[in-house]
Backbone:
């Protein structure tokens, strides 16, 4: 190739062409071209161009409309950055991507490290790292096949001092928000799914002072656990502090309806503590009958109950539960029906409508049905009361009508 300037040298220490400028901001060598390359360096086995500096950029390139620097290779790396103390490659952009990696079939960006972090993403106002996939594959995948020996150097590597739970596939921390948030827009998939193929726990939640696992839902299960094992539970919760007064499992319904439903047998090895007062069972209320809490109810000729209306009625069934501040602790016979069903207290303490015009009531008096609809009265004739006793008064009522706390004891 012919040129206006040509320099030859056969000595390693002597350059073929050398340009020197001793001014503070001068240029040693300048290459200018209207449409071609400003400077072209070529070597058969060495480096095409070498640029170095003791205190500034070794090489600086600039373009107004295209890439500032383009490097390509047929078989090696397109661009390689090397540093003994700082970043090997550092990309900065005021409005675009700091570093962009693209490939048609390989990995867009690869970060590896023997002792440091393979890839670090950090942002002051947005996501530190975001992974997006336009295929059925995951947006972000974390894999840990931990071994104490580096696959690159063959020597024992330093393990992280951070507690890692034997090397997790992913580790997430947050000072103010969720440590991990999972969202799914598909009704057939969970927001967060944990799977363990090694016989361990699928999802494990622990907390120093809060809830280990919290699940809420508007239209579906807040927490869904399934297991095909014949020896282990689909979900297990533990309270590991022996003297803690808080339960291992807590369930609450905002509308004070069923907080838990079990389809199958329930086995309890400890005590069952019910904070409410009585044991009741749902009965169908006869049409037209009063069914407010505290009403004394009797059996009718069918399978319904209605309010009592005569004295010493042996068909007495009990008292409608829920009057005052006493609610049923246990309700039997809950079922769907189109009719009116109410819990009738069969055992325990309940507030009952009482009429004292048939005799003042004292603590300990036996009570039976009275002529006043839905009210109890004091037993004055023990012979007539046999089979018609509702229970025993726990509070007095000297006159008039009122709600009295009684102990249900049908006899």
Residues:
């Amino acid at each position: 190739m012919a040129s206006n300037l040509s320099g030859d040298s056969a000595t390693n220490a002597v350059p073929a062409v050398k340009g020197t400028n001793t001014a503070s901001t001068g240029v040693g060598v300048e290459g200018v071209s209207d449409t071609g390359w400003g400077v072209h360096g070529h070597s058969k086995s060495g480096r095409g161009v070498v640029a170095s500096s003791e205190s500034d950029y070794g090489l600086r390139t600039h373009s107004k409309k295209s890439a500032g620097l383009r490097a390509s290779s047929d078989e090696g790396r397109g661009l390689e950055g090397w540093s003994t103390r700082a970043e090997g490659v550092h990309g900065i952009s005021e409005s675009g991507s700091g570093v962009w990696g693209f490939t048609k079939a390989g990995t867009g960006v690869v970060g590896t490290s023997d002792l440091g972090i393979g890839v670090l993403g950090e942002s002051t106002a947005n996501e530190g790292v975001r992974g997006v996939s336009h295929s059925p594959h995951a947006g972000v995948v974390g894999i840990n096949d931990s071994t104490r020996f580096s696959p690159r150097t063959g020597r024992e590597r330093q393990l992280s001092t951070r507690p890692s739970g034997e090397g997790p596939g992913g580790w997430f921390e947050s000072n103010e928000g969720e440590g991990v948030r999972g969202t799914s827009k598909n009704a057939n998939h969970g927001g967060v799914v944990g799977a363990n193929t090694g016989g361990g726990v699928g999802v494990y939640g622990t907390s120093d002072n809060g809830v280990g696992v919290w699940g809420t839902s508007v239209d579906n299960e807040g927490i869904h656990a399934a297991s095909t094992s014949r020896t282990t539970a689909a979900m297990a919760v533990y309270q590991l502090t022996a003297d803690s007064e808080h339960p291992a499992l807590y369930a609450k319904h905002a509308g004070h309806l069923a907080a838990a439903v079990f389809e199958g047998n329930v086995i309890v090895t400890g005590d069952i503590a019910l904070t409410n007062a009585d044991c009741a069972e749902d009965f169908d209320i006869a049409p037209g009958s009063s069914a407010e809490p505290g009403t004394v109810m009797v059996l009718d000729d069918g399978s319904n109950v209605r309010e009592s209306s005569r004295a010493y009625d042996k068909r007495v069934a009990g008292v409608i539960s829920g009057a005052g501040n006493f609610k049923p602790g246990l309700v039997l016979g809950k079922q769907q029906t189109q009719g009116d069903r109410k819990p009738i207290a069969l055992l325990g303490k309940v507030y009952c409508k009482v009429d004292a015009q048939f005799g003042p009531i004292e603590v300990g008096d036996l009570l039976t049905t009275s002529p006043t609809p839905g009210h109890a009265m004091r037993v004055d004739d023990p012979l007539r009361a046999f089979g018609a006793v509702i229970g025993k008064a726990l509070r007095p009522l000297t006159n008039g009508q009122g709600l009295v706390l009684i102990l249900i004891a049908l006899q």
